[in-house]
Amino acid sequence: MLKAKGLQSETSRLLDSLDTGDFSGQPKDKENMKKMEWYNEHQDAQIPGGEKVRSFRTRVDAELLRVIEEGQSGHPSAACIHGSVMKELSRMLHDDMHKAHVEPGGVVGVYKIPAGGYRAQVLLRENDTEEHLPYGS
After folding, report:
1. How far apart are CA 81 and CA 90, in angstroms?
2. What is the mean pLDDT of residues 72-80?
């Protein structure tokens, strides 16, 4: 369908979610969340069996900026990303990991700010047909 519309897609491993290693599949209980928060605060520490938060941010930030800037070239761009990457986008643009938080199936638009830079705006918080996308925001 994309080709019929003159569009193309690509898969980027650079937008893979944070590799939480030994924490993967574990319950998101208070103890595990506290441990993961420690790794967020100590970004150069290796998550056991996973990656460093700083390494994750370095690869994701650069690729997110590439996708955003590609969208400024006159051809809209879109990215389907995981929750940890969505949090990173929000942190990168707003210094707040939860400002542009959406549930799976949600949609966030990224807009160029006239004074320079970008902002993320939640367009559809969750996969709910009763919500309406704001036009011209």
Report:
1. 12
2. 82
